[in-house]
Amino acid sequence: MxxxxxxxxxxxxxNRGSYIGAIIIISIGVMVFIAMTEFLNNLKxxxxxxxxxxxxxxxxxxxxxxxxxxxxDLLDIEGVDAVFGRLEGDVRLLRDEGSRIITLHLMGWRxxxxxxxxxxxxxxxxxxxxxxxxxxxxxxxYGFAPGDTLTLVANGRxxxxxxxxxxxxxxxxxxxxxxxxxxxxAIYDIGAMNxxxxxxxxxxxxxxxxxxxxLAPGVRFPxxxxxxEQKLRPYGLNDLYPxxxxxxxxxxxxxxxxxxxxxxxxxxxxxxxxxxxxxIMLKKMVDKDRQLIGTLxxxxxxxxxxxxxxxxxxxxxxxxxxxxxILPAELAGRYLYIDDVNYYAxxxxxxxxxxxxxxxxxxxxxxxxxxxxxLGIRDVLVIMPAESMxxxxxxxxxxxxxxxxxxxxxxxxxxxxxxAIFRNLLRSLVIALSIxxxxxxxxxxxxxxxxxxxxxxxxxxxADTYDLQVRLANYVSEETAESILRKLEGVRAAETAxxxxxxxxxxxxxxDALLAVMDPDSTLQRxxxxxxxxxxxxxxGLILSEGFANKLGVAVGDVLEVSGGKLTRxxxxxxxxxxxxxxxxxxxxxxxxxxGLERFFQTRYQPNSLLLDAEPGQLDRVxxxxxxxxxxxxxxxxxxxxxxxxxxxDITVLMLNLLAGFSLIAGVIMIYNIINIxxxxxxxxxxxxxxxxxxxxxxxxxxVFEQAINFVLGILMGFPFSEALCRLIEYAVGTDTLSVxxxxxxxxxxxxFGICATATMASVYFVIRGVLDIQLTEVLxxxx
Amino acid sequence: xxxxxxxxxxxxxxxxxxxxxxxxxGVDFTIDEGELVVVLGPSxxxxxTMLNIIGGIETITSGELYYQDVAVHALNSAGLTxxxxxxxxxxxxxYNLMPNLNALENIQLAGxxxxxxxxxxxxxxxxxxxxRAGNFPAMMSGGQQQRVAIARALCKNPDLLLCDxxxxxxxxxxxxxxxxxxxxxxxxYRKTIIIVTHNPAIAQVANKVYYFRDGHIERLVVNEHPLxxxxxxx
Lengths: 784, 234
Ligand SMILES: Nc1ncnc2c1ncn2[C@@H]1O[C@H](COP(=O)(O)OP(=O)(O)O)[C@@H](O)[C@H]1O
Ligand SMILES: [Mg+2]
Prior knowledge:
A: 4 domains, 6-stranded mixed beta barrel, 25 helices, B: Rossmann fold, 29% helix, binds magnesium ion
């Protein structure tokens, strides 16, 4: 059988383009797999390591005011091993230039901190009273250098500090100025200073506002929740949650989870494409060799002897596809890891390479190649020795009669092309599929960025039309808020608003949400769905985003149990019906009117934020005034919120753009290969036509006409595929606060169409050149 | 009789690596209109090479070849295509039918390339395959495929019909049927036919027989009285 192997080897050499193509695509898939897995594993390990090193608490609570001495009371609770308290507070950071409203979430540092440790860079044994540490990302944004003087404003008093370095904290990885939105470290980040100095600055001597709890081994949050609530309530309990709900920790876990879907999805797509190409290739090869195979069988060769020769190719492709991507994958994984470590301001960078992941990549590659091969050479088993004397009959073809008008419309060459399509529909279908796949993938993945940007812009330009959202440190009476608003100058329109962190429960499922209390008459803040339809907040029940509704498994008419530290007491919950579901693009996703709030919760409407729309050219002036206001926790410019929201998605965007790029590469390779393979098997056919006296341009016309029809077919098939992929993207990237309505603009379709058309034309051009290059005398020697 | 083909010192060299094969080593011949010519010779003697050159699918290394007043040796590839299209019909040893076209369509296809085609259906009747019009090549026996191939070549109504081992893959009886088709066409339309074969019996129906050896014409035999197919002892 040595010579048989030799024969196959020569065929492989002839088809080397297709093999290289298959290896490239398989490599891309494996690369995505290894890169993403390594990235996520390192991120997970890094997070665990960070939390462990910094003694990240198991349970977190935020209170208004708790005397430090009372912390030990919590140790009485069964299951609580250790307790920690810290003073924290938002203060304004003033910069000379510009009127940006910058907020530092200051955390008090003590040498004997035992939990939620702050990592200071450079390391410090002690922090003096005038030293200030700033979150790493903000420090980078402004380029603070040790020794710089920074000015803070708290309680209307201005004080100067010396910048001493950067501070990192697992709690501050994802510093959110408001519960909805994304971090913008140019205006909000953590900071640290000596705890006593902070007490002096905030005027809160001997008190803590943030509590951390270490649970005894095996104890879980629900077991200590009630006693903790009870003990903390006297100190103004705002929030109590386990580690998994800590904003920063949760953001990272969320990100990891959303990428896990990509890990599953992307390589699968690429492996399917590879399988498709390899399968077609092998099938053609076996078809071509059927006489030889029949002959060998007639001589007594077993199926296994023959099949094993082909399988060797699978092993080679599998090996190459498993080995080649390792290095680029590790580089990409490292890049993603570093990017995230920086985004989350993690102080430790430690990317380690895990050969077990390579092994899995190899497994995927091998599995793909061998599966495709086995499917492709299935026919080896059924070829009968007698068939060695004949070529295969056209199968699956339609015999057909052209309608008279088509008949008149087409010339002879076109009819030959058309006939070839109908006689071998499967071949046409395969070509069309090879065009439809990249068409749909490029058009859908490539549109994501566009749609995302549009969604975010629409939200800030049409629904949230204010320039500035001023978050107050506390809920205040409507009168107080109004009186602040009256004093501001340069404001065209101003409103008050409020929102509450709540827990929504339906049967056994529950979700944390931010309940937005809205004014039906508001012009600055409205509920809008992804089709830019507006909805008025209701007083008879909640309007929920579809995302929340799905997570909770509720529909219109269902009743939710709503509870929240500020709105309900003890274990009490309030039952509110869901009155409407809206496909919200971006925002809190849970809405109630002011009237509704007062009705369901028996409480007065109390705003905790101010919405300001500045007069033209007056925004800077308004910001200056806000900078001096007391009782403001943060102020958010909608312009910047827009940017940071978009920036937060940048890895996802990058991912999908890369995917679009990869699909493009894979698509071009696939289109060329499939067209080449299916034309190569017809070289003799075209050669015979040339011997009969058919001119090059006539043969070109036949092929071009045929491929044009396949192309149109492919594009037509591509549209439903695109739609399906859009739904998949929506599902994959949707979160509580963001959902996108994926749609593909005609221009994007047009561009993708152009790319696919170019790839097809180029492929057809090269394939035709190859076909016409045939040595005519060879045709006469060939047997089919 | 009018001379249609004339070759002067026709040479064809194949160079593969260091090996040079003189497939045709200076060949001269003339063929008249309406003649049935048979080319005999051992395998590898250059018969197919000569036929391919005459048919315009193989280039000439040196020498001259005229078809009527067309200087075939001077034609470029487009010119050769035009030449094949206008004057030449081919019957191949391995039939070379279009796998995706049925018998009738295969014949019609060739007719479409001609300005003066013969009727495809009549030709199919003529080769005795009326019933098989809708069959694809893969569904027919070798002899049936060869008959379709001949009908296809004839449909173009070529002035010059070239057949390379047309009966080589066929049993005797089928081979005789095929030969009968060819001689009938030669008689009926006065078309020139060149048949390459290694079967000496076929030589008896020819007007002229060229004997090839090592790229040379070793001998030319002119049959004043060729036999009809039925008179030959196959
Ligand atoms: N394409 C080719 N490349 C190299 N040598 C060739 C080629 N075609 C034919 N030959 C050589 O030319 C010689 C004549 O071949 P051919 O005309 O096919 O012989 P015949 O038809 O008489 O059997 C042989 O030695 C053959 O090996
Ligand atoms: Mg020969």
